[in-house]
Specification:
434 Repressor (Amino-terminal Domain)
Length: 118
């Protein structure tokens, strides 16, 4: 059990480092949460999409889409991932928020928006 706890703590540290490295390396382009899920949880734990989808009680397609950046993390999925990997829902939702905001900043120009206050 102690070995498992050390592994989980190491994974949490790796998630933090991975996200920060990805953001700095790609001009602050945060990774999609599905990429983090795949590289820092599925690969080291040798989890398959089938195994994880059963454990998370989601469809294989839903998990496949998430891991391949075709869908995002909902609050419901964040709760499931947090329990499954002993993290917090906020971790997953913050990753999704950072990813979505960066994508929006690349796509939308707000120069024509009028300042309404201050």
């Amino acid at each position: 059990m102690a070995l498992c706890l050390v592994y989980i703590d190491t994974i949490h540290i790796m998630v933090y480092i991975y996200i920060n490295m990805k953001e700095q390396k790609m001009m602050h382009n945060p990774p999609h949460p599905g990429e983090v899920l795949k590289e820092l949880y599925f690969e080291p734990l040798r989890l398959t999409i089938t195994q994880a989808s059963r454990g998370l009680k989601v469809t294989r397609k839903a998990l496949y889409d998430l891991m391949n950046g075709k869908s995002g993390i909902s609050p419901h999925m964040a709760l499931k991932l947090a329990k499954a990997f002993k993290t917090t829902p906020e971790l997953w939702l913050n990753m999704q928020f950072k990813y979505d905001l960066w994508q929006a900043k690349q796509q939308y120009v707000v120069d024509d928006v009028q300042v309404l206050y201050g």
